[in-house]
Amino acid sequence: MIRAKLVSLALTAAAALAPPAHAESGWGDLNLTQGVTDISRKIYDLHMLIFWVCVVIGVIVFGVMFWSIATFRKSKGAVPDTTLVHNTKVEIIWTIIPVVILIAMAVPAARTLVEIEDTSKTELSIKVTGFQWGWNYDYLDDGVSYYSHLDRASNAARELDSGIDPHSVEHYLLNVDQPLVVPVDTKVRLLITGADVIHSWWVPAFGVKKDAIPGFVNEAWFKVDADKPGLYRGQCAELCGRDHGFMPIVVDVRSKADFAAWLKGKAAQPKQAAAPAATPAPAPNAS
Amino acid sequence: MAEHLAHDAAHDDHDHKPHGWRRWVYSTNHKDIGTMYLIFACTMFFIGGGAAMLIRLELLKPGLQYFDPQFFNSLTTMHALIMIFGAIMPGWTGLANWMIPMQVGAPDMALPRLNNFSFWILPFAFTLLISSFFVPGGAPAGGWTMYPPLTLQTGASFPMLIFSIHMMGASSILGAINVIVTIMNMRAPGMTLLRMPLFVWTWLITAYLLIAVMPVLAGAVTMMLTDHYFGTTFFTAAGGGDPVMFQHIFWFFGHPEVYILILPAFGIVSEIIPTFSRKPLFGYEAMVYAVASIAFLSFIVWAHHMFTVGMPLAAQLFFMLSTMLIAVPTGVKVFNWTATMWKGSLSFEPPMLFALAFLFLFTIGGFSGLMLAIVPADYQYQDTYFVVAHFHYVLVPGAIFGMMAGVYYWLPKWTGNMYDLKLATWHFWLSTIFVNVLFFPQHFLGLAGMPRRIPDYAVQFADWNLVSSLGGFGFGLSQLLFPYIIWKCVRGGVRIGNRAWEGAHGLEWELPSPPPFHSWTAPPSDAVIARGAAH
Question: What is the residue range of A97's domain?
C-alpha cells in the first residue's frame, strides 16, 4: 500500500504539471485556487506575485550560498580572506533593496485589501452563525433561516473505526445536509457571528475567511462570476472544539432565477424548529 | 600551559563540587544547572515529539483510526506547549547557563541560587501540565493559543494549564533576569558590549523580550482563570467582555515569544559560520543592530496572527506594513551570514552542517512568512497547513537545528571529548532530508485548502498527508541518534585541547576542555579577550 503510494508519488512528480487525473487524487493539488470571484482572483494574483518575488530572491540568495559552499572549500585549498569583515556600502544596499521590494508588494496588497473591506452596495444579506458544530444561515430580509451540518454519509464514516472507507463517501467531510444557497453575480454580504466559541467561515473559492466570534458581527462579502454557478466547499478554520474538523461549509451558487424560486419555496416551508444551537439534530435533506 | 590548567581544573573539581544528588538538587553552578536544563529540554523534546508522532499517525490516512477528536486536540495543544515552553525555551536557557559566563569571562552566573530555583520550577510545572492527560476531561484541547471562549470549556485540566503556565513564566523571567544581570555586571574588564559574541548579544536581547512579555501572558491567563472561577467576564461577550481582547493580549506576548525562540539560534549560527569559514563574522555591528531591530519590531506586529478577526482597515494595513518590515533586518542577517562564507575556507563538520541547514531552511520559513504578511493572501492562508508549514520551518530547522548546531559546536568543550563525527553527520543528513519530507508538503496541503488542527480530512488531502507522516516518522526516529551521540561523547572519545575547532574564536575556547567547575576564577587578560573577539 505504502509502496504503491510511493510509486505513485514518483510518477506524479514526473508529471507534476499535468492536471490531476481525477478529482479524488491529491498529488496535483499544490497551489491556491483561483476561485470564482474577482476578489479571489486578485488574491491569487497577489499570492503568485509574492511567491515569484520570493523565488527570485531565493534563487539569488541560495545561489550565492551554494556557490560559496562549492567554491570556498578548505578541502579545495581555499584561503580565507580575513580582511573581508565589513562594508557599509553593501550593508546599505541590502537594506534598501528589500525595502523597495516590500513597498512594491505593499501597494497592490493594500489596494486589494481596500476593495475587500468595501462592504457597501450589497444586494443580499445573510447572517451566518457558527456553533458547535455547524452553521446557521439566516436570510435577513426574507425570513428564511436554517441549519447546516455535516452530511449523514460523512458523519457515519468519520466515527472512530467506522469501517467505512472515506474514499467511498462522496465529498467526504466536505458535504452538508443543507448548503447555503446564493445567486450568481450578486454582491452577497455575510454577517458572521458565533453562538458559543469562535469559528471561522472559509470558502477558498470566494477568497473569504472571517472569524465567527460571540458578541461580534463581522462583515464579509463575495460576488460569484455570472458564469460560475455550482457547489463550492470550505471548512471551519478556527479550532472550535471536538468536532472542529467536522463542520464543513457548502455554498450552492445558482442562477438568479433559480435562486429566487428556491428562496420563495423555502420561505413558504414551515420554519425549521429553532433548535438550541448546542444540540443540533441532523436536519432532513431539503433543497 | 593548557595541561597545567586542565590539571588545576580537575583539582578544582574535586575540591568544591558537592557529590551525589545534592550536587544537582542544591546546585548553584552554572554548568551543572545548564546540564540539567539541557537534559530537561531534551526529555521534553522527546515527549513533545511523541505527541507529534501520534498526531502524524492519526493523519497518516483519512478516517479516524486511533483517537477521539478531543484527544487529538489535546495532542496538538500539548505538543505545542511542551515544545515551546519545555524544549526550546529551557534548551536556550541551558545553553545560556553553560556558555554566557565562559564567553564573557565570568566565573559563574550572577545569581546562582536564583538559577537553581528557576530550573527546579520547571519539572514541577511540566509534571502538572502533563499529568492533565489523566484528569477528567483530558488534557487541555483548546490549542496552545488558549483562545477563550473555547479554552474556558476545558475540564478539570483548566487550572492545571493556567498554573503550569504561571510556573513556566516565572521560571523564564527568573532565568532572563539572571542572564541580564550576568551580562551587565560580570563581564571581564575589557569585554565591552561590542566585543561580546553574538550568542551573548542575542541572549541579552532575548532576556529583555522575556521580561517584557511573560508577565503579559501571565496576566492574560490569570484573567481567564478569574473568568472561569470568580465570575469575571473579561473575555466573555455575554458579560460585556471581549474574546478578541484575549487574542490581542496573547499575541502581544506571542509574537515577541516567536523571537525568544529564534534569536539565540541567530546567535549560535553567527558563531558557527565564522568558525567553519575561518573568517570573522561579516558585519558584526550590523548583526547586532539587526537583532535589536527585530526585537523592537516584534512588539508592533502581533495582530498579523489575527487578520481574520475583523479589524479596521487602518489596523490591518499597519500590521501588514510593520510585519513586512521585519523582513529587512532578517534579510540583513541572512546576507551577512552569506557574506561571512564568501571567500572563506569552509569545512563541513556537524555544527556547520546544521548551521547551513538553518540558513537555507529558516530562509524558506522567512519567505512563507513574507507571504503570510500580505493580508489578502493571509485570508486564504490563515489557519491552514500553510501556516503549520511556515512556523515549523522556522522552529524545527530554525530553532531546533540552531540548538543542535550549538550542542554539536560546544559538546567537545563541555566534555573534553570529540563526539562521533560520522554518526553526527548521519544525524544531520537524516534530519535534514526528513524534515523537508515532513513539512514541505504541508505547504501544498494548506494552499489546497486543508485547515490546521483537524484530526481527519477530505480524501484529496490524503496523498500529501501520507508523505508528511512518513517524513515525520523518519524525522522522529532520526532524533534518537542525538542523545545517543551525546551519551557516547560524555562516556569518552578522542581528547581535545582548548580549541575544539581550528577556526574557533571566543573566550570559551581559551579555557581547558572540559572547563573548570568555576569558569573564569580570574578574569582573562585584555590580550586574551582581544584574541577571542576577532571580529
Answer: 38-116
Q: Is residue A8 part of a domain?
A: no
ipTM of the complex: 0.91
Residue A167 lies in a domain: yes
Whether omega before A284 lies within 30 degrees of 0, making that bond cis, reads: no
Distance of CA B68 to the CA centre of its chain: 30
Q: How far apart are CA A130 and CA A134, in angstroms?
A: 6
Q: Do A142 and A63 share a structural domain?
A: no
Distance CA B331, CA A101 (A): 12
Cell reading at B388: 503549520
Q: How many helices (H) and strands (E) does chain A have?
A: 5, 10
Q: Among the three residues A83, A116, A149, which one is the final residue of a domain in this structure?
A: A116
pTM for the whole thing?
0.92
**What's the total number of domains in chain A?**
2
Helix/strand/coil for A77: coil
Question: For residue B372, which of A46, A211, A235 has the smallest C-alpha distance?
Answer: A46
Query: Using CB atoms and an 8 Å cut-off, which of residues 229-248 of chain B contact chain A?
Result: 237-238, 241-244
Residue with cell string 582581544: B530
* Distance (Å) from the alpha carbon of A269 to chain B's nearest alpha carbon: 33
User: Residue A177: enclosing H or E segment and its boundaries?
Assistant: none
Query: Is residue A111 domain-shared with residue A130, that is, in the same domain?
Result: no
Residue A12 scores a pLDDT above 50: no
**Is residue A22 over pLDDT 50?**
no
The answer to the question of residue A229 being in a domain is yes
Asked if B334 reaches chain A (Cβ–Cβ under 8 Å), the answer is yes
Residue A203 is assigned to a structural domain of this protein:
yes
Q: Are residues A207 and A245 located together in one domain of the fold? A: yes
Residue B345 touches partner A, C-beta closer than 8 Å: yes
Q: Are B17 and B60 in contact (CB under 8 A)?
A: no
State how far the Cα of B432 lies from the Cα of B428, in Å rounded to an integer. 6
- The Cα of A264 is separated from the nearest Cα of chain B by a number of Å equal to 32
Residue A21 gets which letter from DSSP?
A: S
- pLDDT per 10-residue tile (average), chain B, 535 residues: 46 62 92 97 97 97 95 97 97 97 95 96 97 95 96 95 97 97 95 94 97 97 96 94 96 96 97 96 95 96 96 96 95 96 96 97 96 97 97 97 98 96 98 97 96 96 96 97 97 92 92 92 88 66
Query: Are A72 and A168 in a shared domain?
Result: no
Cβ of residue B460 closer than 8 Å to a chain A Cβ: yes
Which residues of A, range 71-90, sit inside 8 Å of B by Cβ? 72-75, 78-82, 84-87, 90
**A114: chain B residues, CB-CB within 8 Å:** 313
Grid coordinates 428562496 are at which residue? A263
pLDDT number for residue B268: 97
Chain mean position to CA B296? 19
